[in-house]
Fold:
Amino acid sequence: MTRMPKHNFPRDRFDEIPRDPSRVGAHRAPRPRLHWLVTLLWWLLTVIVLTGGGIFAFLALSNTGTIDVPEAPAASTPADVEPELDTSAFVVVLNGTASPDAADAVEAQLISAGWADDLVATFDSDTTDFETTTVFYVSEADRARARGVAEAIGGAEVSQSEEFAAQSEGGFTVVVGLDRVAE
Structure:
């Protein structure tokens, strides 16, 4: 067996390495103790910003501010019941015309007939060519009160429809037609 020669090199500064080096290059630096917490906080901030932006974008793009209006009724309800004025009923007024003042005029008529401001809500519809002003009611038991609403606004057709049941909260929906627009 042959022995390897033993070398005795002179000592230099690289032979004297401290036992606990504070830093000897970026790749050898110890990670901070709370490194995971910083990563978690950045992740949470990113999730919150992206989720909030997505919700805001969805709401901005989905809110059109219009309500669909059904087709004009084929025939009005027979006038075999006496009109009953019930100013405690909630009334939604939809503007079925291109005139911005048409629904406001109907709202003013309802308020002057005795309805409170918070019981009358005015909205634009997606239709601007609704022919005849119509009062829609939900159940047959409401026909007399619907006729009362029609009489309070100076006359209108009355028709039963389930289409507006949710948005009128069981009350009445008046769709203002072209017959209310001054030529």
